[in-house]
Design brief:
About 45% of the residues are buried. The chain starts with 6 loop residues before the first helix and ends in a 6-residue tail after the last helix. The model has no long low-confidence stretch (mean pLDDT about 80). The chain folds into 2 domains: about 260 residues, no CATH class; about 90 residues, no CATH class. The longest helix is centred in the N-terminal third of the chain and has 31 residues. It is built from 21 helices and no strands. By secondary structure, the chain is an all-alpha fold.
């Protein structure tokens, strides 16, 4: 473990700036499905200090340096979430490939820092690294959308899950929330609260309580592991970090419901035309959004996912508008499978040369930014 910081270390201008920038990256990452805020902390070389601070504060061991560290980090993260939510939703709509490539670069930029922390890679460290990579591969390639309730109890659970994005590098809490069909509810409530819609507190407060409870448990476990089995634990975290990019392929990504809800009618019309969905371009309001969402779901070619995401009435209405013939006796997954087979995929899957060049630039930019910021005010 690294030596414990003193209060003067935390408040030194360069180190305070490094902590604040890490907080902004952490908060921004938590807004994006598939991206982990914990990865940003790890990439910036502050992960061990973060775990120690969270474990101490949640156990009411209020050491000034650790309280100040968390205050700067979480304040910056909170401000990023509140004030960047609308901007991130907009950028994910107009430039999804650029944004996801940027976060791939930001994530991979932490590899040099973590390698320096590990030092010589032992066999046990290598095995742990492979195990972490396998965990992320499983999440990226085998997880399917679930049909979960939307209530206060689930909001509390969502807060605990969201903690994964802040504490565990590579495990994206926002992605897991998306899988559990809770992402747009939580991120939408945060944006509504920013616009002073106080009814959103009925969602935000249970989520916040869950975040605190989950953070206390996970941080104390990680601190124990880092103290007793540092290199093996760091190897596992490296595997999580490397594997986190597996679910961030930047091209052909579907927008979420909340992203579409925040767009103007003209933006939605232009978007529907750009992805080869003229029927949706001719619709209005909620009907247009639903049609776009169903179309994107169909491109996944999984009847199970389609049936879980959309009610039968919505699928039948989609088929009717697209001129598809659907037997009246089909239900559930059978209905979804019939629509999947009958409807041609969207045209949005093949990126243009310009889009690929922009994504490559974003990846390099993100990598370089993390490497440089990670070297800001070296630890001592």
């Amino acid at each position: 473990m690294t030596s414990e910081w003193k209060l003067r270390d935390v408040l030194a201008p360069l180190k305070a700036m490094r902590i604040a920038v890490t907080g902004v990256l952490m908060g921004t990452a938590n807004l994006i499905p598939g991206v982990s805020g914990g990865t940003m902390v790890l990439a910036m070389g502050l992960y061990e200090e973060f775990i120690e601070a969270v474990a101490d504060v949640t156990a009411l061991r209020l050491r000034p340096a650790r309280v100040a560290f968390l205050a700067i980090l979480l304040a910056a993260a909170g401000l990023a979430v509140v004030f960047l939510a609308s901007l991130i939703l907009y950028l994910l709509f107009i430039a999804p490939s650029f944004m996801f490539a940027l976060f791939i670069g930001l994530t991979l930029g932490g590899v040099p820092t973590l390698l320096r922390m590990i030092g010589q890679v032992s066999l046990s460290c290598g095995v742990a690294m492979f195990a972490g990579l396998a965990v992320m591969a499983t999440i990226a390639f085998t997880t399917q959308a679930a049909d979960m309730p939307r209530n206060m109890a689930m909001d509390f659970v969502s807060g605990i899950i969201g903690t994964m994005a802040m504490v565990l590098p590579g495990i994206s809490g926002s992605y897991i929330l998306l899988v559990l069909n809770q992402y747009d509810r939580v991120i939408g409530a945060v944006d509504d609260l920013r616009r002073m819609d106080w009814s959103a507190l009925w969602i935000v407060i249970p989520v916040g309580v869950g975040v605190v409870a989950g953070m206390a448990g996970i941080a104390n476990v990680l601190r124990y592991l880092l103290r007793r089995y540092e290199k093996v634990t760091l190897g596992f975290l490296m595997g999580l970090l490397l594997g986190s990019v597996l679910g961030l392929w930047p091209f052909g990504r579907a927008p979420t419901e909340k992203i579409l809800e925040k767009r103007s009618p003209e933006q939605l019309r232009v978007y529907a035309e750009s992805i080869g969905l003229p029927v949706a371009a001719g619709l209005e309001g909620r009907a247009r959004i639903d049609h776009i969402l169903v179309a994107w779901s169909l491109t996944e070619k999984s009847p199970v996912i389609v049936a879980r995401k959309h009610p039968e009435a919505m699928l039948r209405l989609f088929a009717e508008r697209e001129g598809l013939i659907v037997p009246a006796d089909l239900q559930g997954a059978a209905l979804a499978e019939h629509v999947v087979r009958s409807w041609p995929p969207l045209q949005a899957g093949n990126p243009s040369t310009r889009e690929m060049v922009a994504a490559l630039f974003a990846l390099v930019l993100g990598f370089a930014a993390t490497v440089m910021l990670g070297r800001l005010a070296p630890k001592g």
